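can u do me a favor
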C-alpha cells in the first residue's frame, strides 16, 4: 500500500478538496490548469471495470484518474503530453498515496498509441481539447492553448489511439462539446469505435446543451441510446449535479 506524501507546491498552485468519501485532494493552478465540471461528470458517467487496466488520455493534472480510483481497483495509466501538467499529476498521485494504482506517463498520445501495445486497456476515458486549432483566443498561454485546442491531439488522433490500445469490446468514455458531435461519431466509426450511449448536459432546463457524454465500444454493433439529459442548475441557480 502506498503512503500519502508531502509534495512541493510551485508558484500559483493551490490544493483543493475533491469532496470524495476517500478524502482525495488535488493540486491546481489558474496559471496552467484547473479542472472543471466536465471532468467530474465524465468520471461519474464512466462505467469502469472493477479490475484490469484503464487509461486516461489527456489527463492534465490527473483529476479523472484520481476520481476513477474511487470507482475501480484497476491499474490506471494517466497520459499527458505537457511536462508541467504531467509533473502536477505525479505530485497529485503521491499526495493521495496512489502510486501503486496510478501511473503517470508523459508522452504524446500519437506516439504512445504506436508502441504501447495492442488491446492493452479494458476502458479508456478522455476529456480532450474541444476546439479546432483555428478557433478561440490566440493570446492565451501555451498550457491552456494545448489543453483547449486540437494542436497536438485531434478527435481522429484519439480514435486512432483507442482503436490500437483498447481491447475488442472495451469501452471508451469521452466528454466533448455538442457542436463537435458529428465529427466525433465520424472519427470513432472510422476507427471501429461504435458510439453506444449519448447523454447531453444542459446548464439549465431552458438552455441548450453545452456538453455531451459518450460511451463507445471497440468493434461494437450499431445501436445508439440517448439518455435523459442532465441539468446542472435549477431555476434558483443552485447546482444540482
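np, heres the sequence
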Amino acid at each position: 500500500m502506498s503512503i500519502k506524501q508531502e509534495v512541493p507546491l510551485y508558484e500559483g498552485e493551490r490544493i483543493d478538496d475533491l469532496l470524495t468519501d476517500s478524502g482525495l485532494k488535488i493540486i491546481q493552478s489558474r496559471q496552467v490548469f484547473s479542472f472543471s465540471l466536465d471532468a467530474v461528470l465524465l468520471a461519474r458517467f464512466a462505467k469502469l471495470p472493477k479490475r484490469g487496466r484503464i487509461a486516461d488520455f489527456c489527463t492534465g493534472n490527473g483529476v479523472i484518474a484520481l476520481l476513477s480510483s474511487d470507482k475501480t481497483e484497476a491499474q490506471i495509466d494517466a497520459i499527458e503530453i505537457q511536462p508541467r501538467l504531467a509533473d502536477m499529476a505525479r505530485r497529485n498521485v503521491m499526495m493521495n498515496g496512489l502510486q501503486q494504482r496510478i501511473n503517470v506517463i508523459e508522452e504524446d498520445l500519437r506516439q504512445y498509441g504506436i508502441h504501447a501495445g495492442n488491446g492493452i486497456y479494458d476502458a479508456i476515458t478522455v476529456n480532450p481539447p474541444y476546439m479546432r486549432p483555428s478557433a478561440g483566443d490566440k493570446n492565451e498561454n501555451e498550457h491552456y492553448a494545448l489543453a483547449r485546442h486540437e494542436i497536438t491531439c485531434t478527435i481522429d488522433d484519439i480514435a486512432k489511439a483507442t482503436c490500437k490500445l483498447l481491447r475488442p469490446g472495451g469501452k471508451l468514455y469521452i466528454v466533448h462539446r455538442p457542436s463537435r458531435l458529428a465529427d466525433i461519431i465520424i472519427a470513432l466509426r472510422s476507427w471501429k469505435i461504435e458510439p453506444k450511449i449519448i447523454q447531453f448536459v444542459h446548464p439549465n432546463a431552458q438552455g441548450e446543451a453545452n456538453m455531451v457524454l459518450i460511451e463507445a465500444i471497440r468493434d461494437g454493433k450499431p445501436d445508439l441510446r440517448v439518455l435523459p439529459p442532465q441539468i446542472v442548475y435549477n431555476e434558483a441557480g443552485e447546482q444540482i449535479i
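The mean pLDDT is 93. hope that helps!!
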